[in-house]
Structure formats: C-alpha cells, structure tokens
Predict the 3D structure of the following.
Amino acid sequence: MQYDDHLAFETLFDRYWKPMFRAAQARLKDSATAQDIVQEIFIKMWQRRSTLIITGPLENYLMSSVRLSVLYHYRSQKANPVSMDDALDRINVLESSLDSLTHYIELEKTLADAVITMPEMLQKVYELRSENRSIKDIAQQLGLADQTVKNYISEVIRRLRVVIVQQHPEKSLTYLSLLLFVLHN
C-alpha cells in the first residue's frame, strides 16, 4: 500500500472492513454511522499511505482506530444527554490517562493477550461488557443470572489487574483506572 498498490489496499479493505464495522456498530448502535467511521479510517489510511508507519499487529491498530473514532464521533455529534455524558466521560478518561495512541494500543494488546488465556465464559463476558452492554443484557444473552455476570466481571478485573501490574508497573494505576471505568460503567 505504501507504494500505491491499489490491489494491496483492496485486500486490506476486504479483510478488515467487516470486523471493523461490527466493532463500530456494537458501540454506536447505528449502522450508517458505523459504516461512515470505518470508511473514513480507510480513506485516511490511503491518504497517509506513504508516511503511515504501523508498529505491531495491523489488526490492533485498526481496531484501536475504530474505538477512538467512535469516541471522537460522540464528542462531535449531538447525542442524547445520557449517551453524550457517558461518551464524554470515557473520552476524558482516555485523554487524561493515555499519552498517545501507542499507549492505548499497548493497553489493548495487554488486555487481549490476557483475556485470550481466560476461560471461554470470562472471555465472552469481557467482550460484551467492553462493547458497553449492560449487565442485564449480558445475562440475557448468555443465559446467566445478573449476579453471575457481576461475579464474572469481578473475576476478569482481578485477573487483568494482576497482568497489568506485572507487565506495566509504571503505568499500572492509569491502566487500572481506565479498565475499571470501562468495565464498571
């Protein structure tokens, strides 16, 4: 893609558009806006192709771009007061906690690597909760009691806390604050 290879860009688009769209749609609950956000990410990538340097896995970069784009969308749009307040709180925590997209991607990778080693039910609960689903929604979808979902969330947080403290001791308070904010709201 860096060498103006349209086929390489099309391959990248075909491979990642759908998962990126699903991630955006899960956070927005609006297909049209999710589609716009993902298309804008690809447009920006193509426009910056000659100078864009991605360190680490491409998928992590793209999914982090989706998450941040959704947050910025909420900031720039008129949303209902509850959604706007929640989104702005999340943006403020992200901006004050993380110095750059690199740190955000670093945290995302740490969490993804830790979650993949957990039992399947903990993985499902983590994924659904990180998509801003309510405890009641998660319980209904997985056929569990609300209290069971709360217990699973507590166990996920406990396990992730251990990993964050071990792998990022210098940033552990910041990362833990962000993790708790995302999973408890």
